Amino acid sequence: MRSRKSPLRPKAGARRPAPRTQRLHKLLAAAGIGSRRHMEEMIRAGRITVNGRKAEIGAQVGPGDQVRVDKRIVSLQFRERPPRVLLYHKPAGEIVSRDDPEGRPTVFDHLPPLRSAKWLAVGRLDFNSEGLLIFTTSGALANRLMHPRYGLEREYAVRVMGELTREQMRTLTTAVQLDDGPARFDRLTEEGGEGVNRWYRVILKEGRKREVRRMFETLGLTVSRLIRVRYGNVWLPRRLKRGRWMELTESEVEGLTGATPPDDSVRQ
After folding, report:
1. What is the tens place of the pLDDT at every residue in 78-118?
2. Model confidence pLDDT, tens digit, residues 195-230
3. What is the radius of gyration, based on Cα positions, of the chain?
4. Torsional class of 66: left (φ above 0), alpha (ψ -120 to 50), beta (otherwise)
């Protein structure tokens, strides 16, 4: 379910950090030998050696160390793998929640199952909105991508019933008073349209509930379609069909900064 072109461009020349020493019992558990607690028990029993010597609880090992479990050499992975990250093309008519009293379809029904973790949504889209959703197995990464201090841009294609005047466009990029405080678009551009429907491209750096729709509603305009096409430097690929997901590669996960759009991004 992966598109042929990357939805983001990692920084040129980026290098992975050199491996560091890590806790022995943690590495053994990651290698599938057993749980961390079981590894500690094996260390106490003298069944694990490092460079020919019995290991101790809390031991740190590096790439040059030879580790044996019951005299069998164990290959260890020292570079921590980045968390898993999925892109999902949300269609209208799905909620971003695992439980819904109304029994509506949920985006989580379409994601691949996990054994020892769960998918965390990076931000939300309301029931009637479409477009890019990011999911990760890392709470720290999810928080970083959503935290206001990082100021990651959210970009939307918005179809409105009616046409904005120059004064209204100026108002939306200056200050609109909502019930939970002032809001504004960092950028607002016209994208054309036919009849009563007009398309606009908007960018803002926060994700309050139904914020884009509410901003237009303050001017008496109704949003008839809302599509998120970018989150930070992650773009919604054209080849990613509605209701489908794709997983980022490790290098792409490590490059979740910057904002250069690839040729394969959605431009409504």
Report:
1. 766 788 999 999 999 999 998 888 999 999 999 999 887 89
2. 889 999 999 998 899 999 999 999 999 999 999 999
3. 24
4. beta
C-alpha span between 67 and 73 (Å, rounded): 6
Domains for the chain: give ranges and CATH numbers: 22-73 (3.10.290.10), 85-253 (3.30.2350.10)
Condensed to tens digits (0 to 9), the pLDDT of residues 140-193 reads: 889 889 988 888 999 999 999 999 999 999 999 999 999 999 999 999 999 998
Separation of alpha carbons 64 and 45, rounded Å: 24
Distances (CA, A) of 138 to 82, 83, 134, 143: 9, 6, 12, 9
* Residues known to be catalytic: 126
C-alpha pair distances (Å), 57 with each of 6, 23, 73: 43, 9, 19
Q: Which of 61, 39, 40, 34 is nearest to 50 (CA)?
A: 61
- Residue appearing with tokens 């491996």: 19
66 has a pLDDT exceeding 80: yes
Alpha helices per DSSP H over the chain: 24-30, 36-44, 139-146, 166-172, 211-217, 250-253
Query: Strands 53-54, 48-50: parallel, antiparallel or unpaired by DSSP?
Result: antiparallel
Q: State both tokens at 10.
A: 């990692």
Find the angle CA(121)-CA(124)-CA(126) to the nearest 5 degrees: 140
Q: What count of Cα atoms within 13 Å lies in the side-chain half-sphere of residue 75?
A: 0
CB 141 within 8 Å of CB 130:
no
Asked if pLDDT for residue 121 goes beyond 70, the answer is: yes
